[in-house]
Amino acid sequence: MTDELKRGLEGVLVAESDLSYVDGEVGKLVYRGYDIEDLARGASYEEVLYLLWHGSLPTAAELDAFAADLAAEREVDDDVIETVRALADAGERPMAALRTATSMLSAYDDEADEADDGEATIRQGRRITAKIPTVLAAFERVRQGAEPVAPDPDLSHAGNFLYMLTGTEPDAVSEETFDMALTLHADHGLNASTFTAMVIGSTMADVYSGVTGGIGALSGPLHGGANQDVMEVLHEIDASSKDPVQWVKDKRDGGGRIPGFGHRVYKVKDPRANILEEKLRDLADSSGDTKWLDYTTAIEEYLTDQGLVEKGIAPNVDFYSGSVYDSLGIPVDMYTPIFAMSRAGGWIAHVAEYQEDNRLIRPRARYTGPEDAEFVPLDER
């Protein structure tokens, strides 16, 4: 046993996994051996879920059955919707509302206590994954003073969410773009939220607990909130009427950091950022509004010229995902919940995988407190 302290568990191997691999030196991400670019461009989010949960890409017949089973689970109990409505009316934060609603969903799942059954874990995970979009869309609709829209089982996972959010079926470009975004966020190794879900799963708790814990971890600004930060910066630049490059220069001169640049793992441009940059271009071409594309590309070019990429500080997925979501009409504070909506598939896969050969995760801390403290009775203190 080593006494070397690894703050944040950085570089510490705690498990083996077949699910995803990140090579930060060359900017590569794979799910079960498949390059993320191939999956994002050639497979639907449903196919990616099947891959993560079942170990292989589905045949056409397997995909049809899987997608139908997933769509059949989209309805959410009225009690949960009423709770979501109450949280929206009370002004609760979207991630906190999602955390509460996800925990509540377990009360309506007869299999919720079967944590020692891997197949039951996947079935529960399917219900969670299907219902999270319904919960999020209902929350946002209520906040906007509108009634929730019932899910449409004939639409894709991505298309159905956009439909429930807006009440209108999305166009092909929007649906394809959002589907890609879900695929790009589905898994990313043992990040903080995935590790949280896995730690909870290692106690043989049910997968609802693991996903709820993952949502809690993802809600922290050091993990899931960067895409929101990027979009808030872009809105600030737009409101200032400054040239975006000049705004960034002023920000850096004042010691400020530009969100969306730099990553704990990637030392080059995040491969997911390349794909979302292309989709942002497609959305801009479709709508005729190139503002966010112009801002982000100008900022990236300037910071690249300043040598940040050479120092290992390159654009990450959040640098472009915020602009993509804004172009789809999604409110800024819903970006991290959408991240959770996608990543839930990965959390579920990791919990199920780890529980197959489970060992309770129990690290230790180096004690730095006092020694040999003399106890003094209460009446003598």
TrEMBL record:
PROSITE patterns (UniProt xref): CITRATE_SYNTHASE (PS00480)
Listed pathway(s): Carbohydrate metabolism; tricarboxylic acid cycle
UniProt keyword annotation of Transport present: no
Coiled coil stretches, renumbered: none
EC number: 2.3.3.16
Catalytic activity: oxaloacetate + acetyl-CoA + H2O = citrate + CoA + H(+)
SUPFAM superfamilies: Citrate synthase
Keyword presence, Transferase: yes
InterPro entries noted in UniProt: 2-MeCitrate/Citrate_synth_II, Cit_synth_Halo_CitZ, Citrate_synth-like_lrg_a-sub, Citrate_synth-like_sm_a-sub, Citrate_synthase, Citrate_synthase_AS, Citrate_synthase_bac-typ, Citrate_synthase_sf
Gene Ontology cellular component annotations, sorted alphabetically: cytosol
Keywords of the record: Transferase, Tricarboxylic acid cycle
GO biological process, one term: carbohydrate metabolic process
One of the record's GO molecular function terms: citrate synthase activity
Annotated active site: 263, 318
Family: Belongs to the citrate synthase family.
Name listed for the protein in its UniProt record: Citrate synthase
Organism, as annotated: Halorubrum coriense DSM 10284
Taxonomic classification: Archaea, Methanobacteriati, Methanobacteriota, Stenosarchaea group, Halobacteria
